[in-house]
Amino acid sequence: MTEPRHVTDASPIKAPTLPDAQIVTSVDHWTDRLFSFRCTRPASLRFRSGEFVMIGLMGDNGKPLLRAYSIASPSWDEELEFYSIKVQDGPLTSKLQHIQPGDQIILRPKPVGTLVHDALLPGRRIWFFATGTGFAPFASLLRDPQTYADYDEVIITHTCREVGELEYGRRLIDGIRQDEMLAELIGEGFHEKLKYYPTTTREQSAKMGRITDLIRSGDVYADLGVDPIHPDRDRAMICGNLAFNLELKAMLEEFGLEEGANSKPAQYVVEKAFLD
Ligand code: A2P
After folding, report:
1. pLDDT tens profile 67-122
2. 179 in a domain, yes or no?
3. Could you tell me the distance, in angstroms and rounded to a whole number, from the CA of residue 130 to the centre of ligand 1?
4. Is residue 133 packed enough to be buried (19+ CB in 10 Å), middle (13-18) or exposed (0-12)?
5. pTM of whole model > 0.85?
6. Are 177 and 144 in the same domain?
7. Looking at 91, 112, 133, which one is the last position of a domain?
8. CATH of the domain at 221
9. Burial of 199 (0-12, 13-18, 19+ CB in 10 A)
10. Range of the domain at 51
11. Which atom of ligand 1 is nearest to the CA of 247?
């Protein structure tokens, strides 16, 4: 396993020269398969926590090569943050993984997506279910004051193959818990509301297993000391690989939750974690 590596640059940020470009301000390599980076934010960009935008690099043919990426930073942050997989032969991420502070990335400032508070009806408790880089939209929502204003309980589950893949999320949760300014911003009492449930499936860790199996067995309720999922009180957002999304969606439907959308809010929403 590789150690996380943080790359930043203290020199002044230069103005971008390409259309729709932003400047990378820092890069963190979490494992040999995962990295995150921060960049400048267009002054005009407004988004709702949980939404995604198209980002990418200029291709060798002079055309932009773009993919959908969830914005991992909260809407109040003056920079933008993204969390990405590295695919060695992936058209975009094979190049994107080498970006450095000061480099330009292209960003189309048209945020969209279904993992937004507006797509859910009011409830008492919200579950954020993620696998792998599907954690990204929740990194935004977990730093959004509305999340704690709308719900009495906020539960984030993150299932990855290996322990190192949990690190980005783990540090983010630690950061939320320790950062007093953030605590003030996102509201009093959030410490008691936020519950974090990381699990691994292919490397030994404190809690092993797919979250779907841990819900079925009741482990997750027992471990967190919470009541089972019920449509009257629970709302959920799902973001991960396709098989996980489909399986969890079917389970939530079985529990009586209905899928919501921006145009018709309901009890849960789902979005694919975008892969190269
Ligand atoms: P597993 O290792 O048992 O396949 P990936 O890296 O392939 O996107 O997977 C991320 C995590 O999602 C892995 O821990 C994987 O578990 C888990 N996962 C894959 N499919 C499902 C599913 N249908 N339900 C729940 N978890 C799943």
Report:
1. 999 999 999 999 999 999 999 999 999 999 999 999 999 999 999 999 999 999 99
2. yes
3. 10
4. buried
5. yes
6. yes
7. 112
8. 3.40.50.80
9. buried
10. 5-112
11. 23
